[in-house]
Amino acid sequence: MNIAVRYQSKTGHTAKVADAIANALGVKAEPITVPVSPDTDLLFLGGALYMIYGCNIDPDLVKYIAELPPTVKRAALFGTSALMTFGNKRMLKHFRTKAIEVCAENFHCYGEFKGLQKGHPDQKDLDDAAAWAKRIGN
Ligand SMILES: Cc1cc2nc3c(=O)[nH]c(=O)nc-3n(C[C@H](O)[C@H](O)[C@H](O)COP(=O)(O)O)c2cc1C
Q1: Angle CA 93–133–49, to nearest 5
Q2: Is 3-137 a CATH 3.40.50.360 domain?
Q3: By the 8 A CB rule, do 90 and 121 touch?
Q4: pLDDT over threshold 90, residue 138
Q5: Would you place residue 46 in the very low, low, confident or very high pLDDT band (cuts 50, 70, 90)?
Q6: Chain centroid offset of residue 13 CA
Q7: Which numbered atom of ligand 1 lies nearest the CA of 113?
Q8: pLDDT tens across 59-101, in order?
């Protein structure tokens, strides 16, 4: 199975989770500046919410989803927002216009922001992300 892991990350939290997912599956996590191959079977895609975008995901991530090759078979979403947990739903919305199936089970853990959710994502978050990825990817 051809698995890809991509993430959008401003302060490194989502990148950390992406690395845990990628390590669990024996692939490399890359930022969304790196396109996916059209023959991707399963794409793990991560992002977060930012007030600067009206508590929404980064417009670059929206564009990335819009421009995904329609031949990508399945996507699994993960996120690390600090306050709100609907980042994955925000991503999901942009898949509605695509023929790409999105796995029902997504993954969210908190990411520290302004003293809130201190230390997250922590080791347990990374272990949980790896376990989730293995469930989806195997
Ligand atoms: C500029 C900025 C704005 C943020 N706005 C929100 C927000 O509106 N809602 C929220 O839940 N978290 C917010 N956060 C917290 C981030 O979503 C959280 O720290 C996340 O883990 C960041 O992921 P990253 O390190 O991969 O960029 C914000 C963080 C930053 C840096």
Answers
A1: 40
A2: yes
A3: no
A4: no
A5: very high
A6: 11
A7: 19
A8: 999 999 999 999 999 999 999 999 988 999 999 999 998 989 9
Amino acid 14: pLDDT: 98
In angstroms, the CA 94 to CA 106 distance is: 15
Beta carbons of 6 and 32 less than 8 angstroms apart: yes
Q: Residue of the nearest CA to atom 16 in ligand 1?
A: 81
Of ligand 1's atoms, which has the minimum distance to the CA of residue 15?
Answer: 26
- 50 DSSP assignment: B
Q: Distance from first CA to last CA of the chain, Å, rounded?
A: 9
Ligand 1 site residues, Cβ closer than 6 angstroms: 9-15, 48-52, 55, 80-84, 111-113
Dihedral of alpha carbons 80, 46, 33, 24, sign: positive
Spatial contact of 84 and 53, defined as CB atoms under 8 Å apart: no
